[in-house]
Fold these 2 entries.
Entry 1:
Amino acid sequence: QTHALDYAEAQQQSQILTPEAKVIGHNNFYEFGTDKSDPKANAQAFQVDPWQLRVDGLVETPFTLSFDELFKFAPLQERIYRLRCVEAWSMVIPWVGFSLNALLNKARPLSSGKYVAFETLYDPKQMPGQSNPFRGGGIDYPYVEGLRIDEAAHPLSFLAVGLYGKSLPAQNGAPIRLVVPWKYGFKSIKSIVRISVVDKQPPTTWNLLAAQEYGFYANVNPKVDHPRWSQARERRITTGGLFSSNRIDTQLFNGYDEVASLYSGMDLRQHY
Amino acid sequence: MVRGLSRRNIFWLKALIHLLSLGWASLTYYRAGTDQLGGDPVEGILHFTGIGAFNLLLLCLIISPLVRWSRISQFMQVRRLLGLYAFFYALLHLASYILFELQLEWQLLLSEIVKRPYITVGFSAWIILLALTLTSNKAAQRRLGRNWQKLHNWVYLAAGLIALHYIWSVKSDITQPLVYIGMLLLLLSFRKDKLLKLWR
């Protein structure tokens, strides 16, 4: 179902990539089931073409992108990012896409726009987790996420349309998903149909489900534990089996220190 | 016709329990070791051993109602074996957590047991199962006399703690833990009178 992409390759780097089979076989995408292997098993018939991504809200020029336009909107580039799940595992993934800022620049947010709200497709016919409460993990669909507008405009914030050189497999959030590498993975909303600039902090799915466990910011932070488990370290998913699993220290902002200035003066324990 | 199981039947039933318990665990560890157990073999192993221990404990708790319905008292002869395998799986679960999840950070183990309620609860259940395992032989049974039954009634508390550990450990999808809690409550309901007596 995926197709090859034309893109500018990322520079070589020292981190070992998580093998493609694991990136596309170990997913949290509750719309297709809550087990890590469910999305791959249940999402193969997911129709992403035709698609509509609507960009609207407090902007000068709202617009809509079709499936084909997603891949032509901006020159595609590869970004190798660490992805840290709130469940204390992580991967290193070569995404292909463009910066979220490029999209915002085209829409031209009004000065009254303070936040960006994102929404996943709602289609219970295609997404068994949305039609059956026992398979959707108790989430109130559609899945929604949000960023402060300066976070969204940061050059690291990325819209991925592919990984490992090909368009996204359905289970990874085809045809377009967010990637915010300094935040826990659940912020990186999948299969987006709407991006709206808004004036108030938008509701976010996991925060609605358990506010004391998942905050709006959800910045990776080894010093702020999840109430039920430690976030000090993480298990890097790479090659090899049980005996080669790799436990490493978790870094503040997942090691992306360049975002620190976005939060200067904020108490990150309070705004977790 | 006399209802019952011959010694030969019991032998094969026990052989089957050994084969399934050891075989399944060996196969799963082999698959995890060779990276064939999903994207995250550590999570895979922790899940397998945890659920396995719970399954075996439930099987253990089904024996006495089964004897009552079937009137085949010989089923009682496999109960200890099921209990021992329940502890064996719980041992694999804890050992895998220490070895593969914490990677031998003992300090962290202690602080997690103290700080994380679901781990405190799981560890408490483990300690109970350990005590039951250590006193499972005939000699201990003789030595403890009437206290042996009192001690082994703690299995109900252990089962409850395991259920709590399970539902508390999942992120949001509580369907499967609820199914397990339902099965446990059903099994406990068969011994309602006994449990009420213990409570008083």
Note: The two ends of chain A are 38 Å apart (CA to CA).
Entry 2:
Amino acid sequence: MKSFTYERARSPGEAASASARVQGAKFIAGGTNLLDLMKLQIETPAHLIDVNDLGLDTIEPLPNGGLRVGALVRNTDLAADARVRRDYGVLSRALLAGASGQLRNKATTAGNLLQRTRCPYFYDTNQPCNKRQPGSGCSAIGGINRQHAIVGSSDACIATHPSDMAVALRALDAEVETVSADGKTRTIPMADFHKLPGDTPHVETALAPNELITGVTLPPPVGGTQIYRKVRDRASYAFALVSVAAIVQRDGSGRVAVGGVAHKPWRMDAADAALPRGAKAVTAQLFADAKPTQQNAFKLPLAERTLAAALAKAKG
Amino acid sequence: MREDFELNMSRRGLLAAGAASAAACAAPSVAGAQQSRPDATTTKVSLNVNGETRALDLDTRTTLLDALRESLHLTGTKKGCDHGQCGACTVIVEGRRINSCLTLAVMHEGDKITTVEGLGTPQNLHPMQAAFIKHDGFQCGYCTPGQICSAVAVLDEIKAGIPSHVSADLNATMELTTDELRERMSGNICRCGAYSNIVEAITEVAGRKA
């Protein structure tokens, strides 16, 4: 790990302005992904701003009937919150499908959104990677890419976003609240928060430099049967090959977001509209432009079958 | 003094002595915790480890795991992968199990930390330690301190009603089944494959038959 200086910020504004003041600064909350990457010198911050004392660790009801989840709410606490379990079951389920008990106790809501891909070439500093070292090339294209993206990828990068939580937040139409170094706040819909790789796979989110996530808002409960179905190589503690977050209403309408297939949670209006016609119709829309590799083409039928299983369960 | 102390103690003896041995090896004490200087790459931190306040002056890079093992000589907590994948480094911080390899010691100012040495001693075993011995919940023993810390916390998590991936109903009372224990313990890898005996040990402590 490279040497770094360390400070504890006392307010969100102070954290954001400290980040603008010190070159090479990074925020640290749970640290479960950042420290992992720092040990491998994939992340090499010169300064860490500890944001754990910012008081952003509560879940508050909103006047519109929704919930505001503080950026520092731990994954365990968000999954176990009685309101989330009752009204946003897909979010509880997605969180519980991710990582291990130890990691969920430490990992935060904001950090989960900002976690980096687990592409093995991103993790191997001996290999070219456009995300780690822009312009160096992509080792996954033509390499071992069974786990990688099948849709929305580019000639520069075929990495996936690893979060389960983000897939549920996308299905729920959650929004991300931030504060900038100049004190300005803004709200970013989950649909726009994560970027497709394009020519700049190192730019992963809509966040500006030094912008700090302060929370995530959940719209008023939408009801329906909420299911998160994750398919992975082990029964527990593994990243998704494919995951499906589905919210299905009694009349068969609803929403579907898919994880493990793209650089961001994958959801389309046209696919949601096709939901009453079944899994095949939905995945035909979602993956019309898919470009799988030879090794991960299995994700196309797997996504359809995983959604079919979720829809069958929703029918009861 | 530190060298003499280590030379005169067997590895197991050092583990057994637990907090007492660490106290003898403590870094020079400092008067209260201080904020690190913004230009410093070392910082003072005070941890409450197994009921004792321990003041340390550490490189900011020091993980909680390395602080426990290298600075406080509490070597019960093990370093396996050092990347949060194996669970050998599991300790209980402020009542919650975490991977001590994926957190910085400086981020734990004033925190209450329980390691396997703080759960019990050879003369006065924690019920979970006794159950692991009785049920042969290990072979090489390397993952065992992490397994035991994790298992103790898992029972508290079930009691607190925290659901898991295999809980059939998110809103029902959490049950203590074999499936629940296997899922909740999935962050602790045992390469000897003692899993079934580990589940039996935890089940006994929970007051149920496996």
Note: The longest strand of chain B covers residues 42-49.
